[in-house]
Amino acid sequence: MEFGVTFFPTVGPKDKDAQTYYDEALGLIERADELGYRHVKTVEHYFFSYGGYSPDPVTFLAAAAARTRNVRIITGAVIPAFTHPVKLAGKLAMLDNLSHGRLDVGFGRAFLPDEFAAFGISIDDSRAIFAEGVEACRRLWSEEDVVWEGRFHQFGPVTLQPRTVQQPHPPIYIATAMSQESCEEAGRNGYHLLLVPATSNRERTQELIAAYRTARAEAGHEGEGNVQLSYPCYLAEDGAEARRIARYDEERYNERLGEAVRAWGEVSSSAYPGYEKILDATRNYDFDKKLGDNKLLAGTPGEVLTQLKEIESWYGADITVSLTIHSGLLPVEQSRRSLELFAEHVAPHFAAQGR
Question: Which residues form the Luciferase-like domain (predicted)?
Answer without folding.
Answer: 1-315
